Amino acid sequence: MKIFFIIILGLCSDIYADLVYPENGVELNYTHIPFEWEQESEAKYYQLQIATDISFNDIIYDIEDPSLIHILKEGIDWEHDYFWRVRGIKSDGVLSDWTDAYSFSIGSYDDIISLNTTVVDESSYYPGYNLFGSLIDKKTWIMDLDGEFIWYSDSLSINPLSDILPNGNMLAIYFTNDNILSYDEKRTIEYSIDKEIIWSSPDSLFAHHDMIVLPNGNYMMLIKEIQDGPIPLGSWTSLFQGLGYVADGVELEYPWEGDRIIEINPETYQIEWEWNVFDHYSLMDYDTLAGYWNTALDDLKYDWTHCNSLFFDEYDNSVYVSSRHLSRITKIDYDTGEVLWNLGRNMQSSDVDFGHDLCFSFQHDITILDNGNLLFLDNGNLSEYYCGTDTQITRALEVSVSDSDDELSSEIEWEFVLPAQYSGTFMGSCRRLPNGNTLINPGAISEGFYGRSFEINQQGETVWEMSGSTIISRMYRISGLYPQKFSVIQPDFVWYLPNPTTYLSLGDNCLHYKITNEGHASQLYQYDFQDNGIWFDDQSGVIEVDAGETYELIFSGSVFYEIYPHNISLSVYPLGSPQDEKNVAINAWSTQNNNSGCIDPIACNYNENAITDDCSCVYNCLGDINLDNSIDIFDIIVIIEIILESVEPSDFQSFVADFDQSGIIDINDILAIVEFIL
Hints:
Elements: E1 3-4, E2 19-21, E3 26-28, E4 33-37, E5 43-51, E6 59-65, E7 69-72, E8 80-90, E9 102-106, E10 115-119, E11 129-134, E12 139-144, E13 149-152, E14 158-160, E15 170-175, E16 186-191, E17 197-200, E18 211-213, E19 219-229, H1 237-242, E20 254-264, E21 271-276, H2 277-280, H3 296-299, E22 302-303, E23 307-313, E24 318-323, E25 328-333, E26 339-344, E27 364-368, E28 374-378, H4 383-386, E29 395-402, E30 409-417, E31 429-432, E32 438-441, E33 453-456, E34 462-468, E35 474-478, E36 486-489, E37 494-496, E38 499-505, E39 507-517, E40 523-531, E41 539-545, E42 550-559, E43 566-574, E44 582-592, E45 596-597, E46 612-613, H5 633-643, H6 651-657, H7 667-677
Helix pairs in contact: 5-7
């Protein structure tokens, strides 16, 4: 008999789940939709329906899901209205009432661009979606590999600086008006796929070209730095002298535009680390071939370094920066700020340590691969001068670097040379995909070849390509829009108005929680379990859950009489993203109940008569027929009796007696158990 030591003022009720997302009446700018709802008492599954009408006569999607989140990736179209609802399904098949229906609509995407995609080899391209932006159009899109748009930046005028971050957001340059050249009219932001600006840079710290998130959560970004430098001798000398400048290559008299790397705390806006090219590069080094001194009169400054890419290597605590106009890649010691080496074209100062023969120029998008090699896009603006080619050549380069024992050397380990008509003069990106292929976007190329991107395998074969009508600044291959969607379920709760409630029997007991990773990447979760009574010890920890998998947290305690209930809560959030915390709070009541045991149907010792779980479930029990937690001669005796048909086995005994899982209980099972014992 069950005795409650409380007075219940309400009646037990089947309270159906509340819908969480999409919110009622919202307009979305994407067609891959995460549907999320709250847990319902005693529900084992949930039925989700989506329709084009409020009466649900035209149902376009109908599915059962044991989780609280379902991500729909098909069937939703741009410029359409939809309705959705959910109901619970209990273990005995009983259905709860439908929730009230919510509506949502999908907006339109700007068709200012036209893109054509070609899957050359379906067996070897890397699956996913392309995230890319146009600096000219100030827009960002996500498209599947067949050319269908699934997300659009809409009214947010941005150009991407990252792919999907682990927290599901992105980094971008945000244009406050149409002037793409004015730093005063731009911001650097972190934003969500719902176009919510999470963080915005201060007016004085606009990050040009690149911004990254460090392991400590701070941002590292490139900002402009202007100091006076000399006007070197050249064909332009007389022009500057005519304007009153000395122009002797020595006098510091003309504004040089360089770069500063800063690390900024996103919460305090304090600069916590910085590095300045004027402190580490020689003014003797400058480009003399691309004609930038000839345009300095129009720009009123000399565009000296034009850094365009950052990479932080957590392995050896170093920072890599790419200087376009010096055709140089620099490795910096993060702790000291010391330049560890310069790689690239040697200049007047001889500060470039090695890699002179690599002949890359005006490069973009440096990354460090898992093997330690450098990967980047060599735009090759000066390849005719540096490499002796007949025309400009753009390449994807993988370069190994040896910097041990004070010896520096570099070697091209892999390269892909684009046809000359696809050479990119500025912008572009180059990324190694998990399957070993390389996604190459050459940036701004010749008129008529806009929007070209290629996926190349290790043999240099094109397996996927895209062409279009706009210049693509960066291209990323992503696995999906939602890296860290997850749900937390407390399977044992019931509703006693107004709170979710769990009944725990006297004596030892346990609480179960199920954490399901609905995202597309493996995720670390921080959990904090608290009991404001004294039944359970407070616990905290970190667990890892693979994409699509469920992790069960079990907390054991000792339950005894209490007159009043108390609150037990579990909070869970992806590591590093406490803002995405989910909290399950329940009222726990003590009961006098002798019907406790293992309540998990998939456990070896499932007790169908048990009402509450006593944490006794056993799952790895092949051979242990008598469930004494030991496989021995007594189990063999039972198997012999089953083989001789002197004992009629239960379903459970039939399962655990088949030790080799052959589907037959025979002498081979006995031999396998003997071998196991020995």
